[in-house]
Amino acid sequence: MSPNRTVIAVAAGAAVVAAAVALPLFQPWRVFTDTVVDEALPGAPPATVSTAGPTTPVTASPSVMPSSSPAPPTISGDRPSTPAQAPVTLGQGRLISHEHDTSGTVAILQLPNGSRTLRIEGLDTSDGPDLKVWLSDAPVREGRAGWHVFDDGKYHNLGKLKGNKGSQNYPIPAEVDLSAFSSVSIWCDRFNVSFGAAELKT
Questions:
Q1: Which of 100, 171, 97 is nearest to 133 (CA)?
Q2: Nearest 5°: CA angle at 174, between 129 and 196?
Q3: Are 119 and 110 in contact (CB under 8 A)?
Q4: How far apart are CA 139 and CA 102, in angstroms?
Q5: What's residue 42's pLDDT?
Q6: d(CA 26, CA 128)
Q7: pLDDT at res. 2
Q8: Chain-centroid distance, C-alpha 142
Q9: Residues 109, 87 contacting (CB under 8 angstroms)
Q10: What is the predicted pLDDT for the residue at 70?
Q11: What is the dihedral sign for C-alpha 129, 154, 149, 96?
Q12: Are the beta carbons of 160 and 66 closer than 8 angstroms?
């Protein structure tokens, strides 16, 4: 084999190895994919389902109920319903773009049962590897200055981002002290960079 062919073969082999390592790590195809997840607002009343059916008339026997007897009172199966309590908003904000174009709103909601959840609505960002939803004590800064700050201080991981588009809920554990956090980040844990973030305001 000539020296030139040897060099080409070695370079081709190195390129194959590099691609085998880089592709699973960077997952570049995810720039062109979307995962849409839409969840209902926590505490929203369930859809009303009518259980009423056609009434079948029953004719009483004359020996039991003479025709002159007054009709028995009608008992309605409908009961007055208690209005559903709405969640209380403890903090809210609007997402700004960091490494990827990102938009949508975030809100921390306290549900009628006392539990809390982070609600993301109208999310629109890029798909990516190892995306998480973080509560953080870091300030939200525009531009590249705000891309890498959210793991500098205190943060709490609420879990994997369910979808890069849609409206989703992320339960907040009872032991989390919300007063320690002032922002939300869509955080790429693999490359330590924020896709987008929002400052929480009360």
A1: 171
A2: 30
A3: no
A4: 17
A5: 84
A6: 8
A7: 64
A8: 23
A9: yes
A10: 55
A11: positive
A12: no
- Distances, alpha carbon 35 to alpha carbons 17, 103, 141, in Å: 30, 15, 27
The rounded distance, in Å, linking the Cα atoms of 121 and 131 is 17
Length of the chain: 202
* 99: DSSP letter: S
Alpha-carbon distance 196 to 131, whole Å?
Answer: 11
Q: What is the DSSP letter of 154?
A: -
- Average pLDDT along the chain, 202 residues, taken 10 residues at a time: 57 44 46 90 56 40 45 55 82 98 98 97 96 98 97 97 98 98 98 98 94
Which helix (H) or strand (E) segment is 24 a member of? Answer: helix 3-26
Task: Tell me the residue type at 37.
Answer: V
C-alpha pair distances (Å), 136 with each of 20, 45, 116, 140:
35, 31, 16, 10
Q: Assess contact for 158 and 133: CB atoms under 8 A.
A: yes
CB of 123 closer than 8 Å to CB of 148: no
